[in-house]
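Inverse folding, one chain.
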């Protein structure tokens, strides 16, 4: 992988062997089997260096980069999908894109800050770590930041609350729940104990009053 004028580049080698033994052999050598797709491509089998691929993944799945296929061409692509097991890459799919054609992708959500409700026994419960959006490749964000520091117990973040860049639209229902601050189990038990003690004290007071009467 290299950077040329701010554009990330990844080199791929053509892959001819498709048998399981050959695939396992590639992985044992630190290579990832992959396929390049596109409107004008039937699917080109390739393999890439695992360490270089890992650096590209860190930039975000919506980030456009140049994939150079040795002996063929250099094309702009995004990471369409990948498979991973036990922190080892198994397979990757690259999608050839057109810079003038809107693209629909899933973008990671970056939750920032500590909810105010955590000081009252609440915990941040995350339902979604990605959201689907659409826009021109140049407009797509690598991540979407969400500040959760003001959330109190019972507050939530819905898809409609996301601040998207100009030209980027949401492709999930606006009411879809992304995260919320809920009461932790420990706090529930503690509150129940306090309420139980209060009820017992109140009951003891009533019994004492009845006896005096």
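Residues assigned per position:
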């Amino acid at each position: 992988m290299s950077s040329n004028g701010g554009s990330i580049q990844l080199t791929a080698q053509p892959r001819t062997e498709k048998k399981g033994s050959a695939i396992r052999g590639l992985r044992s050598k630190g290579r990832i089997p992959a396929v390049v797709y596109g409107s004008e491509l039937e699917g080109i089998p390739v393999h890439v260096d695992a360490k270089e691929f890992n650096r590209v993944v860190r930039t975000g799945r919506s980030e456009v980069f140049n994939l150079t296929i040795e002996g063929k061409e250099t094309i702009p692509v995004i990471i369409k999908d990948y498979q991973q097991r036990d922190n080892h890459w198994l397979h990757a799919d690259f999608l050839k894109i057109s810079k003038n054609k809107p693209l629909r992708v899933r973008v990671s959500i970056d939750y920032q800050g500590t909810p105010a409700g955590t000081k009252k026994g609440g915990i941040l419960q995350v339902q979604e770590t990605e959201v689907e959006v659409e826009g021109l490749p140049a407009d797509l964000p690598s991540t979407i930041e969400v500040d959760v520091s003001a959330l109190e117990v019972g507050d939530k973040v819905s898809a409609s609350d996301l601040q998207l860049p100009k030209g980027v639209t949401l492709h999930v229902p606006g009411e879809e729940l992304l995260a919320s601050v809920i009461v932790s189990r420990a706090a529930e038990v503690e509150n129940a104990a306090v309420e139980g003690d209060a009820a017992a004290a109140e009951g003891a007071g009533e019994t004492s009053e009845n006896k005096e009467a």
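The chain has two domains: 2-97, 104-183. The longest helix spans residues 185-212.
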